[in-house]
Specification:
There is one protein chain. By secondary structure, this protein is an alpha/beta fold. The protein is 36% helix and 14% strand. The strands form three sheets. A seven-stranded mixed β-sheet has the order 6-5-4-1-2-3-12, with helices on both faces. Strands 7-8-9 form a three-stranded antiparallel β-sheet, covered by helices on one side. The chain has a two-stranded antiparallel sheet with strand order 10-11. The radius of gyration is 26 Å and the shape is elongated. The two termini are 43 Å apart. 32% of the residues are buried.
Length: 413
């Protein structure tokens, strides 16, 4: 691996997003070398500045920096501008002419009402690629509903399929949909940039949490459409198609995850020292193993109970390459040598927050290496730099914008 030229160097991205999905998209582009200018609105900017952990040092009590904000917004520049003010709106429109990409995740309709719809902005910059990220899309019956990851999760039929069969649906309490939508949006923008290189055309892109969540359904959508009356059910810690595939308890109170495909059934029977299962009429086919999955779970956990520890059982399964893993706590995962060596988690240092871990970049490249020196901005930190660089404003003009409350900065918040 070499420290080659960042792949998006030379591209400019205007980031009008907050929370997770939108910032994930623009952070990926920033790490790949794009110059990302994050537009933050009064009074406090991105809401994640108020989340996560903050500095405990009284000297930094007014700081807007948080670990939550850092994780999703490092490598960007912050400009704090009130675009509800006509002068602020005019500044933004001037900047659009100088940028390749604009990403926003306001409630559908907000940008249009502000005079910042794609139809308006492409008049200023015909080559602009604009991406709108939302819960359910820019139009349709759900478009105006307030929505975050968990709301899209519920509408997508994901939540109903998680949890114990006789219990309540369960929530995935992490930003799976947000993060995946950010990745989808970044992919779409990259493809649109490639299209523009070939044709000279800009375009408008939509990415939604609802659409992204539907991509996560494995096999059930075609099944429902082809099987009249079929309705998938919650199966707790076991995969609905059997296997056995799922989560299993070990003798020491820990758990392992195992994913067994039909062609591995013979190896599984050998691994647990029970070749007679091959002749058991309850388990002769994959369909029968699915229908009798609970009995298989009992048989497998009885075998697991013969080992003193989870790791000892995994060692035996590994001998026949049965796909399995310890169910690690996040604390254990953070310390795993493989995860550390790959940079799946990386350590960062902030002048206010100190040293802490954040996720690494999600893919690896042979011709480019991620930066080890990451920085997150303060609210409005780059107002002067950005307005001078892109719009050639003077110090006097910028000072006047501060006085008129068109521009804000951390000390004003």
């Amino acid at each position: 691996m070499t420290n080659g030229l960042p792949m998006l160097k030379g591209y400019r991205v205007l980031d009008m997003t907050q929370i997770v999905a939108g910032p994930t998209c623009t952070r990926i582009m920033a790490e790949l070398g794009a110059e990302v200018v994050k537009v933050e609105l009064p009074p406090l900017g991105d809401r994640t500045r108020m989340g996560g952990l903050k500095s405990r040092d009284p000297a930094h009590k007014r700081s807007s920096r948080s670990t939550y904000y850092f994780q999703h917004n490092h490598s960007k520049k912050s400009i704090a501008i009130d675009f509800k003010n006509p002068k602020g709106l005019a500044l933004l429109k001037e900047m659009v002419a100088k940028f390749d990409v604009l990403v926003e995740n306001f409630t559908p309709g907000v940008m249009a009402r502000a005079g910042l719809s794609y139809d308006e902005l492409k008049k200023i910059n015909p080559k602009l690629i604009m991406c709108s990220i939302s819960m359910a899309g820019q139009d349709g019956s759900l478009s105006q509903r307030p929505g975050y990851d968990y709301i899209a999760q519920a509408y997508a039929g994901i939540t109903d399929l998680i949890g114990e069969p006789d219990g309540d649906p369960a929530l995935i309490t992490m930003a799976i949909g947000d993060s995946a939508t950010g990745l989808s949006a970044a992919m779409g923008i990259a493809f649109a940039l490639l299209h523009r290189e070939r044709t000279g055309e800009g375009q408008y892109i939509e990415a939604t949490l609802l659409d992204t969540y539907f991509q996560m359904h494995e096999v059930n959508i075609p099944r429902i459409s082809l099987r009249k009356g079929y309705q998938p059910k919650r199966t707790g810690s076991q995969h609905p198609d059997g296997g056995p595939t799922g989560i299993f308890k070990c003798s020491d109170g820990t758990y392992i995850a195992m994913a067994l495909l039909p062609h591995q059934w013979k190896s599984f029977c050998e691994a647990i020292g029970n070749p007679d299962l091959m002749e058991d009429p309850r388990f002769n086919t994959a369909s029968l193993r699915r229908d009798n999955n609970l009995q298989l779970k009992e048989i497998f956990e009885e075998w697991l109970a013969t080992f003193e520890s989870r790791d000892a059982a995994i060692n035996d399964l590994d001998k026949l390459r049965i796909p399995c893993a310890p169910v690690l706590t996040l604390n254990e995962a953070l310390e795993h040598p493989h995860i550390k060596s790959r940079g799946t988690v990386r350590k960062v240092r902030d002048e206010i927050l100190g040293e802490f871990d954040i996720p690494g970049f999600p893919v690896k490249f042979s011709r480019w290496e991620v930066s080890k020196d990451l920085k997150a901005d303060s609210f409005g930190e780059h107002n002067v730099e950005v307005l001078k660089e892109y719009l050639n404003l003077s110090d006097e003009q910028i000072q006047r914008l501060y006085e008129e409350k068109v521009l804000l900065r951390e000390l004003d918040s």
